[in-house]
C-alpha cells in the first residue's frame, strides 16, 4: 500500500523528524549533553576524563579537543559543536573547551526561550546582535598598551602563555612556561608573523620528573647512533634519504661464474665500489652520515674505517626536520655530496637520559630553526598530557605573534560581558531583547564552572563579582586558591583577546546553525537498515 505525504516520497526505512519537539529540542539536548561532558574539565581545576577509543587506546586528559576527537560523536547536531571546537583548535590552538561549553549554555538558554514561546528565528536574531555587541565590548576591555609587544621578551611571553598552560597543568605552569617560551623565542624568525609551530618539537622520555625537563637548541632523536662513534663536534653532515647501502640495478641480469677466483673478484669489486662511495663522502669533509633507510653492513664497515658517525632516521618527517635543523639537503642515492648540499651541526652526541639512549643534535650558533623541549615524567599518559600543555603554549605564542592584545582572565571578562549585555538588552524593543539578555546570562557559566570545579560556592562568588563590577572594578576575577574575588592584573592572569573572540564567535555560529534546523530527514542507508550506533550520542 502506497503511503501518503513524505512517506510516499522516500524509501522504506527512512526517518523523518520535524517540528520543535522532535527536531529542535532534540538537537539542543544533544548539544547540551556534549557540553556537559567537557564543562567539568574547564579551567585550572578541571577534572580529567578517561577516554578509551575504538582502538583501545587510553587517554587521560582534560583537553577538550582530544576528548571530543576521541569520542567519535555521531549525532549530527552535536557534531556541529565538535566542528566548531576543531576550527578553534586549528585556528588558535587553545579555547576548544570554552567553545563547546559556551555553545552548550547558549543552547540551554535557547530551550528556555522556546518554552517561553519565542520562535527560533527571533532567538537567532537576538543571538547575532548579542555576539556583535560582545565583540565590541571585548575591544573596550583590552589592556592598554598590550598591542605593542616584543615577542622575544621572555617575561611578556610567559605572562600571556601562563593561563593557557595552567588550564592544562595547574601548578606546573611556572616550570613549563619558561621552557616553552625559551624554545619559541629560539626559533622565532625575523618576521614573527611567520612563526611555524612545527619548529618546536617535543621529546618525551619516561623517568625523572618535570623539573628534569630541558630545552635543546636542535633535535633529539629517540634512537642510538649506528656504529661505534658516539660523539663528534663542529661537523659537516650528509643526509641520504635512500639509505646507505649498495644499490641494486634497475634491470635484472644473470652473472655466470666459472671459478672460485672469479667469485672472489666479483665480491672484491662490490667491496671496492662501496669503499669508493664511502670514501667520496669522507673526502667531501662530511663527518656524519644520516640515512633515511637501512644501513648495509659493508657500508657501515667502511664508515667505521673512515671515522664517519652514522645515524638512522626512519621517519621521513623527522628527516625533513633534521635537514631544517642542520641546513642539509637530502640526497636520493649514495654519492659524493656538493658543498652546498652538506649541513652543519655544532655537536652530535649520544646521551643516556633515564635509561633511554638518545642522539642530541645541537646547533647553538645562529640560523637554527628547530628547538626541542625534552619532557620527563613518570608515565606515558602524564607525558602525553604535558605535551598537550606544551602544544597549547606554542600555539598561544603563534597567536600572540599575530595579535598580542590581552584581556583580564579569571572570569573577569565574562562577568563584565554579562553585565553590559544585560544593560544593552534593556535598550532593545523587540522580542529579541529576551534572547540578548539570555546570551548575557550564559557568560555566568564560566565563573560558575570555575567555582564548582574548584569546590567553591558558585552563587556567592558570582554575586560578589557582580557587586565589584557594578562598582567599576572591571578587572576583578576569581582567585581560585583563596576562594575570593581578586584583581586579575594583581594575580597576573591574562587571556589573549584573539583566543576569546574566536571561541565566542565560533560558539554563536554553531548555536545559530543548530537552531536553524527544523527538520531532520535520514534516508535509508544502502545495504539495509542502519546498524545501532556504537559510542557517541544516540541518534534517538
UniProtKB/TrEMBL annotation:
An annotated Gene Ontology molecular function: ATP hydrolysis activity
GO cellular component: a single term: cytoplasm
InterPro entries (UniProt xref): Chap_CCT_theta, Chaperone_TCP-1, Chaperonin_TCP-1_CS, Cpn60/GroEL/TCP-1, GroEL-like_apical_dom_sf, GROEL-like_equatorial_sf, TCP-1-like_intermed_sf
Matches recorded under PROSITE patterns: TCP1_1, TCP1_2
Subcellular location: Cytoplasm
Keyword vocabulary terms for this entry: ATP-binding, Chaperone, Cytoplasm, Nucleotide-binding
Annotated CDD domains: TCP1_theta
Family designation: Belongs to the TCP-1 chaperonin family.
NCBIfam families: chap_CCT_theta
PANTHER family: CHAPERONIN (PTHR11353)
Protein name as catalogued: CCT-theta
Amino acid at each position: 500500500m502506497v503511503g501518503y505525504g513524505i512517506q510516499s516520497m522516500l524509501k522504506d526505512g527512512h526517518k523523518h523528524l520535524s517540528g520543535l519537539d522532535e527536531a529542535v529540542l532534540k538537537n539542543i539536548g544533544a548539544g547540551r549533553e556534549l557540553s556537559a561532558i567537557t564543562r567539568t574539565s574547564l579551567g585550572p581545576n578541571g577534572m580529567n576524563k578517561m577516554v578509551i577509543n575504538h582502538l583501545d587506546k587510553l587517554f587521560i586528559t582534560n583537553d577538550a579537543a582530544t576528548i571530543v576527537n576521541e569520542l567519535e560523536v555521531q549525532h549530527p547536531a552535536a557534531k556541529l559543536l565538535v566542528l566548531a571546537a576543531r576550527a578553534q583548535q586549528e585556528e588558535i590552538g587553545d579555547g576548544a573547551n570554552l567553545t563547546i561549553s559556551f555553545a552548550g549554555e547558549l543552547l540551554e538558554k535557547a530551550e528556555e526561550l522556546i518554552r517561553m514561546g519565542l520562535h527560533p528565528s527571533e532567538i537567532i536574531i537576538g543571538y547575532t546582535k548579542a555576539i556583535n555587541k560582545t565583540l565590541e565590548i571585548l575591544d573596550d576591555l583590552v589592556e592598554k598598551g598590550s598591542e605593542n609587544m616584543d615577542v622575544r621578551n621572555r617575561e611578556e611571553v610567559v605572562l600571556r602563555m601562563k593561563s593557557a598552560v595552567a588550564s592544562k597543568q595547574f601548578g606546573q605552569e611556572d616550570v613549563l612556561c619558561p621552557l616553552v617560551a625559551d624554545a619559541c623565542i629560539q626559533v622565532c624568525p625575523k618576521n614573527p608573523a611567520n612563526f611555524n609551530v612545527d619548529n618546536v618539537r617535543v621529546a618525551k622520555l619516561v623517568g625523572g620528573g618535570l623539573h628534569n625537563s630541558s630545552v635543546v637548541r636542535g633535535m633529539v632523536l629517540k634512537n642510538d647512533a649506528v656504529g661505534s662513534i658516539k660523539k663528534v663536534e663542529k661537523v659537516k653532515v650528509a643526509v641520504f634519504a635512500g639509505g646507505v647501502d649498495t644499490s641494486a640495478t634497475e634491470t635484472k641480469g644473470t652473472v655466470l661464474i666459472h671459478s672460485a677466483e672469479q667469485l672472489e673478484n666479483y665480491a672484491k669489486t662490490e667491496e671496492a665500489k662501496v669503499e669508493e662511495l664511502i670514501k667520496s663522502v669522507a673526502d667531501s669533509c662530511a663527518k656524519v652520515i644520516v640515512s633515511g633507510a637501512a644501513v648495509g653492513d659493508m657500508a657501515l664497515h667502511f664508515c667505521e674505517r673512515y671515522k664517519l658517525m652514522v645515524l638512522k632516521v626512519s621517519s621521513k618527517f623527522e628527516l625533513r626536520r633534521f635537514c631544517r635543523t642542520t641546513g642539509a639537503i637530502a640526497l636520493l642515492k649514495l654519492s659524493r655530496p656538493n658543498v652546498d648540499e652538506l649541513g652543519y651541526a655544532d655537536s652530535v652526541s649520544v646521551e643516556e637520559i633515564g635509561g633511554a639512549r638518545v642522539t642530541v643534535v645541537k646547533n647553538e650558533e645562529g640560523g637554527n630553526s628547530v628547538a626541542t623541549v625534552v619532557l620527563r615524567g613518570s608515565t606515558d599518559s602524564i607525558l602525553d598530557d604535558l605535551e598537550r600543555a606544551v602544544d597549547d603554549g606554542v600555539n598561544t605564542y603563534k597567536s600572540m605573534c599575530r595579535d598580542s592584545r590581552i584581556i583580564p582572565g579569571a572570569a573577569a571578562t565574562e562577568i563584565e560581558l554579562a553585565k553590559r549585555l544585560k544593560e544593552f538588552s534593556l535598550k532593545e524593543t523587540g522580542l529579541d531583547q529576551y534572547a540578548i539578555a539570555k546570551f548575557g546570562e550564559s557568560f555566568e557559566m564560566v565563573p560558575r564552572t570555575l567555582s564548582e570545579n574548584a569546590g567553591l560556592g558558585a552563587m556567592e562568588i558570582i554575586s560578589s563579582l557582580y557587586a565589584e563590577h557594578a562598582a567599576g572594578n572591571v578587572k576583578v576575577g576569581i582567585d581560585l586558591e583563596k576562594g575570593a574575588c581578586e584583581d586579575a592584573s594583581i594575580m597576573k592572569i591574562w587571556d589573549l583577546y584573539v583566543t576569546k573572540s574566536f571561541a565566542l564567535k565560533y560558539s554563536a555560529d554553531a548555536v545559530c546553525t543548530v537552531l536553524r534546523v527544523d527538520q531532520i530527514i535520514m534516508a535509508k542507508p544502502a545495504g539495509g537498515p542502519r546498524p545501532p550506533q556504537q559510542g557517541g550520542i544516540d541518534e534517538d
